[in-house]
Specification:
- There is one protein chain.
- Mean pLDDT is 93; it is low at 237-248.
- The relative contact order is 0.14.
- Strands 1-4-8-5-9-10-13-14 form an eight-stranded mixed sheet, with helices on both faces.
- The chain is an alpha/beta fold.
- It has helices spanning 115-129, 142-153, 172-186, 204-218, 221-227, 255-268, 273-285, 320-332, 356-372; strands spanning 2-6, 10-11, 17-18, 21-28, 38-42, 68-69, 74-75, 80-84, 134-140, 158-164, 232-234, 252-254, 306-312, 337-342.
- The radius of gyration is 21 Å and the shape is globular.
- It is built from nine helices and 14 strands.
């Protein structure tokens, strides 16, 4: 695992100082001699830096392996791709699992962070790597929030930006979903006020329920119906001696229940509960217009970054209406922006799945921006 230890640390928006600061990251492709072909890919809430390679914990392919690689829309034969584990995460970057000066993990004492804090940590990493300007910043969901914050904070450092399935602020509905998830974690008997490691415990049930509920919001009704419908399956632990035995009501579960339980149990093995609380709160705080009396165009006035805003028709977590609101705000600020709604019935998670129209949009925007940036045409 690659990580940079930045001794100068970072002063957070809340005033706390994290020093030294660790930023875990992975890179793909080669940085050009001019250092002008770097693409930062920002991950979503439960993602990490293992973008396009086997994950060391789960053994599964990277979360965007279908999008990042040689000849793929984010082409590592042309571009140097960077993905960091966000500040507050649990895969190597400074977060609640990190040790304080007293040798104890931060846990719930980890200071509150913001999306801007995450971005500023990434900027420190890029400084460390000698990359002054990004060719592009790309990300979906919370990753899209980071992309927007990058341009708002460092407009001169981002040539092109693609915020996907995201919003310039977290809605009241999404804050509510996050709060229910946090309450599920803190209600777990193994929570122990966030110091579960002292008891050799993990609040697995609460964290699993939080993941199950969140996962429902990532899908659409159409996707759930197509994939599971009302089909039931016999629980192997309760199944009788013969497959012909009449099924007991209590020996069955709906396939969608089994799927959600699997999602919850697998998530617990790779994610930290305190990180989940920390990062969901950072999302809740996010509102680009908060410092501008509600004016969403103000953060982007004079911005020269080229934008492509992408939404998905069945995404009800970050609906198209929020992407349109963002696109209109960018237009008012005089920004070069295109907006694309992808017709899909797969919900919010569509940006992670095989969607040919999305792939074409991504490839077209990157190749067009590369020409404008003087990086040449795709081979």
């Amino acid at each position: 695992m690659s990580y940079a230890r930045l001794e100068e640390g970072l002063t957070l928006e809340c005033g706390s100082v994290l020093a030294p600061l660790d930023v875990a990251y992975r890179t793909y492709g080669q940085l050009s001699a001019a250092r002008d072909n770097a693409i930062l890919v920002c991950h979503a809430l439960t993602g990490d830096q293992f973008l396009a390679e086997q994950h060391p914990v789960t053994g599964k392919p990277g979360w965007w392996s279908r999008m990042v690689g040689p000849g793929l829309p984010i082409d590592t034969d042309r571009f140097f791709v960077i993905c960091t584990n966000v500040l507050g995460g649990c895969m190597g970057s400074t977060g609640p699992r990190s040790l304080q000066e007293n040798g104890e993990p931060w846990g719930t004492d980890f200071p509150p962070i913001t999306i801007r804090d995450m971005v500023r940590a990434q900027a420190l990493l890029l400084n460390h790597l000698g990359i002054g300007r990004l060719f592009a910043a790309i990300g979906g969901s919370m990753g899209g929030m980071q992309v927007l914050q990058w341009v708002a904070t460092y407009p001169e450092r981002v040539f092109a930006a693609m915020p996907i399935a995201t919003s310039p602020f977290h809605s009241a509905q999404n804050i509510a979903f996050n709060e229910v998830s946090r309450q599920a974690i803190s209600a777990d008997p193994e929570w122990h006020n966030g110091r579960y490691w002292d008891y050799g415990a993990v609040p697995a049930r609460g964290l699993g329920v939080a993941r199950m509920m969140a996962h429902i919001t990532y899908l659409s009704e159409e996707a759930l119906t197509r994939k599971f419908g009302r089909r039931v399956r016999r629980d192997p632990a309760i199944k009788g001696d013969t497959a012909l035995e009449p099924a007991s009501l209590f020996g069955e579960m709906f396939e969608v229940e089994s799927y959600l339980r699997h999602q919850g149990s697998s998530f617990v093995r790779r994610f930290d509960a305190n990180s989940y609380l920390t990062i969901t709160r950072a999302m809740d705080y996010f509102d680009l217009s908060a410092e501008y009396d509600g004016d969403l165009s103000a953060p982007f006035l004079g911005c020269k970054t080229r934008f492509c805003v992408v939404s998905f028709s069945s995404d009800w977590l970050f609906p198209t209406s929020q992407s349109r609101l963002l696109a209109r705000a960018l237009n008012r600020a005089g920004v070069n922006v295109s907006f694309v709604e992808i017709d899909s019935d797969r919900g919010h998670d569509a940006f992670l799945l095989d969607e040919p129209d999305f792939d074409r949009t991504m490839r077209g925007f990157i190749n067009g921006a590369a020409e404008h940036a003087g990086l040449g045409k795709a081979g």
